[in-house]
Design brief:
The chain is mainly beta. About 5% of the residues lie in helices and about 45% in strands.
Length: about 475
């Protein structure tokens, strides 16, 4: 059986049609009244998130099914007034609506996919609480691919949220009964069809791992982006190290470098020549064969990789190095963060930053030895790490939010001490978001501006907003 091209036809003229039904409550709305989704109203947003938002049901009776009447998950942002607000969409009948959102995933710098289960018409009340005027529920979860730069929407319901984006092209897998297991290529410059790259009957694919050159790596096989050759299984490269740090047996026998563990955090580096680089470290890749004469786990390998049409992994431009500190202390931290196309490997004794070299060719490894502060060690144990931004590591402990520049110095900065905080704390764009008590019965959402940490926190909502997922775009 041959896989055929599928029509994407996804300027969302059909997204709200026969596949969406009324919620069936006193404040439901018909398909004709809501119209069809046309475009994103709030273009230019860079930080978007799904939040559990308190709402009221207006003057009508409740219609929520299987959840509280007082909360709903919606796609949100911080508006120009510094307030938490829903992302709004225009419809063909002139309405402005929001989406009850289950999940989001980033696609490149300007786009995201949102899975939603209802279209909601909102109104604001005097107490700043959102109120639902009308709601149109879907018969099944729907997905939309949205461009936050120009506001265009595309129906993505039949495709997975596991994507790879490159050069205005999306690679994804099927997510419906008719295309499950199929690998697709979709050209966003001319969205008219999704091109299948495999036969799901013989080589079913449920997720994509990497893209290297013109090859998609999925399920231990390579697939050509133009379907110009049949899928091939990956053949690891047999690697023979030469440095004296290796034992004679390893030098003679070599070891395999395959796709499992090509990068411990699946963050391959692409330089300006479109060459693919990767790194393995003794500290983070101990399942590989590393020298016994490395008690501090300082050793690392970096190299360029390609894969030929037969699936053979090829390693070239190989070099070895040593970290500037012992990374094995107490086996306490296995964290790696990816921020701004750099990878951060951290231990109790220091930080290693891996990034494309300043020349644009190859990768650079920088080590910053330092003894991490006790409050950070406690945050690691409690899984209270917020993330990295502009070389600052952010974390929280009990009543404090703190940060530290990982490249210099050992002193942490306390951004906030507050014994009224409740719930999760989130690093969002250039802000830290948290909830705190306003009174004995009220909880609001507040923001710390990271560009000016001397300013006091600003209240962005009089209601509690539990942030669940975040997408950071670069428009």
């Amino acid at each position: 059986m041959k896989s055929t091209n599928k029509a994407v036809t996804i300027l969302i003229t059909a997204l709200c049609s026969t596949l969406i039904a009324c919620g069936g409550s006193n404040n439901s709305i018909t398909e004709a009244e809501i119209g069809t989704l046309q475009a994103v109203k709030n273009t230019g947003i860079q930080s978007l998130f799904v939040a559990n938002v308190p709402v009221s049901n207006g003057a009508s009776k409740g219609f929520f099914k299987n959840r509280s009447e007082s909360e709903i998950d919606m796609l949100m942002h911080i508006n120009s007034e510094g307030k938490v607000a829903p992302v709004m969409f225009h419809t063909s009948t002139g309405k402005e609506v929001a989406l009850q959102t289950n999940d989001i995933a980033q696609v490149g710098d300007k786009r995201l996919i949102a899975e939603f289960s209802a279209i909601v018409e909102l109104e604001e009340t005097t107490n700043d609480r959102l109120s639902i005027r009308n709601k149109l529920e879907t018969k099944e979860n729907r997905k939309t691919l949205m461009n936050m730069e120009d506001g265009k929407l595309y129906d993505f319901t039949e495709y997975s949220m596991n994507t790879i984006y490159e050069d205005n092209t999306v690679y994804t897998t099927g997510d419906s009964d008719t295309n499950i297991g199929t690998l697709f290529r979709i050209d966003l410059a001319n969205i008219s069809e999704a091109i299948p790259l495999n036969n799901p009957q013989f080589n079913p694919i449920d997720r994509i791992d990497f893209k290297i050159d013109n090859r998609i790596i999925a399920g231990g096989r390579i697939f050509d982006v133009n379907a110009s050759f049949i899928p091939k299984p990956i053949i690891p490269a047999r690697f023979y190290p030469e440095s004296d740090i290796w034992t004679d047996d390893i030098k003679e026998e070599g070891f395999d470098i395959g796709l499992y563990g090509l990068s411990g955090f699946q963050a391959l580096f692409v330089d300006k020549n479109n060459d693919i680089w990767d790194i393995m470290t003794s500290r983070y890749h101990r399942f590989f064969v590393f020298p016994d004469d490395d008690p501090g786990m300082r050793f690392y390998l970096k190299y360029k990789i390609t894969i030929d049409d037969d699936g053979q992994v090829i390693v070239s431009d190989y070099s070895e190095g040593m970290l500037g500190y012992d990374s094995n202390v107490d086996d306490w931290w296995g964290y790696g963060y990816v921020y701004n196309n750099s990878q951060y490997l951290m231990s109790r004794n220091g930080t290693t930053i891996i990034s494309i070299d300043t020349s644009g060719i190859g990768i650079n490894v920088e080590c910053f030895p330092k003894t991490m502060p006790q409050s950070l060690i406690e945050a690691v144990i409690r899984l209270n790490i917020l993330g990295i931004k502009d070389n600052y590591l952010y974390w929280y402990n009990n009543e404090s939010v703190e940060r530290m520049l990982v490249t210099t110095g050992n002193t942490e900065t306390i951004l906030l001490i507050n014994n009224n905080m409740v719930g999760d704390i989130t690093l969002l764009g250039n802000s830290i978001m948290f909830n705190q008590y306003i009174s004995a019965t009220e909880i609001g959402t507040y923001s710390i501006d990271l560009s000016n940490i001397d300013l006091p926190p600003v209240q962005v909502s009089t209601n509690r907003n539990e942030i669940k997922q975040i997408v950071e775009l670069r428009l």
